[in-house]
Amino acid sequence: MSAASDGERRRARLPCLDWIAGYQPAWLRADAVAGLTLAAYAIPVSMAYATLAGLPAHHGIYCYLFGGLCYAVLGTSRQLAIGPTSAIAMLVGSSIAEMPNVEASSQLAIASLAALMVGIVCGLAWLLRLSGLVNFISETVLLGFKAGAALTIGMTQLPKLFGVEGGGERFFDRLWILARQLPETNVWVLALGLAALALLVLGDRRFPGRPIALVVAAAATALLSMTALEDVGVATVGALPSGLPELRVPSLRPRDVDGVLPLAISCFLLAYIEGVSAARALAVRHAARIDPRQELLALGAANVAAAFGQGFPVAGGLSQSAVNDKAGARTPLALVIASGALALCLAWLTELIANLPTVILAAIVLVAVRGLFNVAGLKELWRVSRREFWIAILALSGVLVFGILKGVLLASIASLLMLLAGASQPHVAVLGRIPGTSRYSDLARHPENERLASVMVLRPEASLLYFNAEHVHREALRHIDADPGLRLAICDLSDAPIVDVAGAKMLLSLHSELARRSLGLRVIGAHGGVRDMLRAVDADGRLGEMGRRITLEQFLQNESPLPSAAAQSAGPRSAGLVDSPADGSTAR
C-alpha cells in the first residue's frame, strides 16, 4: 500500500488532519468569535436541557464540554455543533422516570450509561456500514414525531412557567393536572416567565444567531440578586459545583443495561438522523461534503466522551449548529474554543449562575421547541398527500399518548410499514403506443395512447420480491381478464432492477396459468441480474431464450402475437426474453 493511500485513509478516519493542514490564519478570528458565541448560547440552553432530562443543570454543560472536542477531531462537518437537544433530553428524562425502582441518586448514572451505549451502538453501526439506515425513517414520520415531541416537551415546562408543581407521566395527564392547578399560579413567576419569553422571541427575530438566551439569563440572574423575588416563590438553580467534572466510568450492571438498551437505541436513531440532517443542510450551504459513515464514528465518540464526563446522550442539533454557523465558524476549531470557554466558566463563574431562576430555563426550552412543530410542513402534507398527512398525525399521536420513547419506536415502525406498504403494492402499468411514435407509456396516465390489438404490455413499476409478487400476479391477471381478445402478454421488466426467487417463480406461475388459457407470455427489458435469476429458475426455457438488445417495437414486429400454448411449452423461442435498450423505448 502506498504512502499516499495511507495518508488518505488517515485523513478519512481523522478529518481534523484535513482542516488542520489547510488552516488559514485569517480564519482564527472567525472561529474564535463563533466558539465564544456558541459557549454563550450553550450555557443557559444546556442547563435547561439538563433539567428537562431530570438531571442537575450543570451536567448539560458537561455534554458540550466533552462532546464538542471529540466531534472536532472525528466529524466531517465544519460547522456542526454537538450537544444535548430538547428531544433527546426529554426522551432521557421521561424514560428514566418510567423505569421501576430508580432512585434519584442513580438517575445520572443511568443517563451516562445511556450515552455510553449510544456510543457503542454508533460504533457497531459504523463497523457494519449501516449509515444508510437514516434513509429508512421517513421525513413524514419525523415531522409528526417532532410535533408530538414539541407538545410533550412544552407541557413539561408549562408548570414551571406558571409556578405550580405539575405532575403526570403523559401529555394528557400533565394537561389535566396543570388545568386543576392553574388557580394556584404564582403571578411573580408567570410575569418573569412571560417577560423572558417575549425577550427571547423578539431577540431571535431581531438578532438571529446571537446568544440572546445568555443575555436574558444574565439579566434575570442580576434581577434576582438585587431583589427579594426568591421570597415570593421564584425558584433558582442553586449552587453549582465549581471546577471540571471528574471522569467516571458509567455503571454497567446487567439489569441496568437491559433497561437502558431501548432508550439508547432510540437516542441513537434521533441523534444520528438529526445530526446527519443538520450536517447535510450545512454542507449544501457551504458547498461541502460530509461522510455519513464517518459521522457515526464521530457521534459515537462524542457520546462516549459525554458518558465519561458525567453527561447524557448528545447529538448534532440544528439550533446550536445554526448559532455556530451564523457566528462565522470556518472549522471545528470553533468547537474546541467553545469547550475551552465552558471549562473556564465551570472553573470560576459557577457562583454567578446560582441565582438563575428556573422559570428562565423553562422559557428557553419553550422557545427552543418551537422549531420542532412545523405547521407549514403539516399543511403541505395535507395538500400534497392526505395519506402521508395521517401517517404524520399517527406519529404525533403516538408520542402524546404513549410518551417519547414509545413514540420513537412507533415512528420507526410506522416508517418501515409505510416503506413496505408502498413496495408491496406497486403499480402495474398497461402500456399503449404514443400516437405517431414507436414509444410506449402508461394507458392509465395517457388514455389517448393506442391500444395494441390482441397484445398487452404490462410493466410492474418495482422490483419483484417475495412480499409483492402475489400483488403483481393478481394485478396482471386483472388486466388480462379485462381484455377478452388478448392472445399475448408481454411483461416489461425495465422498472424491476431486482427479481428474487419468489418473483421469478411468480412469472413462471403466470406463464403456466396463461398457457392453460392458450395465451402467451413473454418478458422483455430484463436487467442483467434479473436475467441471471430467470435463467437460474429455468424461466428462459419457458418464456423464451435471452435475446439481443431490441426495442419493444422491434420485438412486436418480429414476434408473432398469436403463439399457441403448445408452441410455448415445446421450448424457447427466439428473442422471447430480451434486453430492451436504454434509449427510451418505453416512457411513463
Written account of the structure:
- The chain is mostly helical.
- It folds into 2 domains: 306 residues, no CATH class; 151 residues, STAS domain (Transcription Regulator spoIIAA).
- Helix content is 61%, strand content 5%.
- It is built from 25 helices and 8 strands.
- The protein has a 6-stranded mixed sheet with strand order 4-3-5-6-7-8. A two-stranded antiparallel ribbon has the order 1-2.
- Helix 7 runs antiparallel to helix 19.
Summary keywords:
588 residues; mainly alpha; Transcription Regulator spoIIAA; 2 domains; six-stranded mixed β-sheet; two-stranded antiparallel ribbon; 25 helices; 8 strands
How many individual domains?
2
Number of strands: 8
Low-confidence spans: pLDDT under 50, at least 5 residues? 560-576, 578-584
- Sketch the major β-sheet: 6 strands, mixed
First and last CA, distance: 48 Å
Summarize the structure.
The protein is 61% helix and 5% strand. The protein is mainly alpha-helical and 588 residues long.
Blueprint of the fold:
Blueprint: H1 3-13, H2 16-21, H3 27-52, H4 58-74, E1 82-83, H5 86-98, H6 107-127, H7 139-162, H8 171-181, H9 187-206, H10 212-226, H11 254-285, H12 292-308, E2 315-316, H13 318-326, H14 333-348, H15 350-353, H16 358-368, H17 375-384, H18 386-402, H19 404-424, E3 428-433, E4 440-442, E5 455-460, H20 469-481, E6 488-492, H21 501-516, E7 520-524, H22 528-536, H23 540-543, H24 552-558, H25 565-570, E8 577-578
Parallel strand pairs: 5-6, 6-7, 7-8
Antiparallel strand pairs: 1-2, 3-4, 3-5
Helix pairs in contact: 3-4, 3-5, 3-10, 3-13, 3-14, 3-16, 4-12, 4-14, 5-11, 6-11, 6-12, 7-8, 7-16, 7-17, 7-18, 7-19, 9-10, 9-16, 11-12, 17-18, 18-19, 20-21
